[in-house]
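User: quick one
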Amino acid sequence: MTRRHLIALVVTLCSALALPVVASAADPGATGGTATFVVRVIEASQAAAPKVDARLGEMRREMRPFEGRYNHFTLLSEQTFTLQIGKDGSVSLPGGGAFVLELMGFVPGKVRRVRYQVTSPGAKQTRSVAPGGRTLDAIPNDKSLTIVATTVR
Amino acid sequence: MAALDEDRMVDDIGLDDEQQMLLMAYADGELDDDAELRARVEGWIAEKPALGAAVSGQRALRSVLREAVFEERQLSARIEEELSMTRGRVLTKLPAEAREPVAETVEPAAWSGILGWLASVGWGRVAFGAGAVAAAVLLVVALRSPHQANGVIAGPAIAEQGDANDSDEPEVIIEEMEIDSGTIVVDPSRRDVDGPVIIWHLDGESDEEEAPMAAPQQEGEG
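Assistant: Done. Structure below.
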């Protein structure tokens, strides 16, 4: 066996070993029986000077629908939950109560959707969302608006 | 024996060969689609009742034969089934090394063909080619993965929508809703159709005041 053969063999073996690792990284969404949710709680209010929290970054664009009434957006918290089926995670809401996510399962299909239940003050919803999908739950308070941005990964 | 008697009866009646063939064809049901010929034969039968008896005998013979063939086939199937079950029982009692190597009688030929071809190409080239293919696949997967992974974290909403949902289904589906108080409004008239779905949780008293979107669709009401 020549050196060239040896190199080819090593490349083949390394590729074969690396493929499963890279392939699993290529599917950042729900894998196996778990799904990851990134939940950001944002407070929108009306102030003398408009301001958008720098930590919102790319989400600034998504605040536009609210800019007619509010001009001050502050990120209150950000949490990432990796949940197994039947498990839940919750964030506290500034107006009181909690926003609870419970992973219920997956909806098979071309894109495997994540089915989860959202429990918020006064309501309970079952949603199925494709990986990468995001919802904004807008909960008005007395003089401000609480926005819960949930991204399914 | 009955068929011979019927044949003799037909001969005695004095039919020519063509008439005999037509009569047999009639008895076998082969004239069902030819009304003219059937009428001719039925005319003969009406004139000579012995022909009717011959036809009945012929049909009875066919029925007996059909039953015999059917029974023979059934018997054959039962025997094959018994043999198969017996073979299965015997095989399960045999030690593994004593069983007939069914698959191995075929596969070595195929494998030897493939291996022969690979050997003719050259093992060095084969290994190099396999490495190149694996590296190419690795590269493609690696190029795809950061895009998908970053789409959620850093990419704009429009990019992650496109990547996440190549199917015709909407990205977000609200399957069920239970509302104890207030109103839930899912905004379908987003100005940015690729943006996130906005779900308004409105108090009952403040619906008019807070509904900020143009003509939102009301999904549920408490």
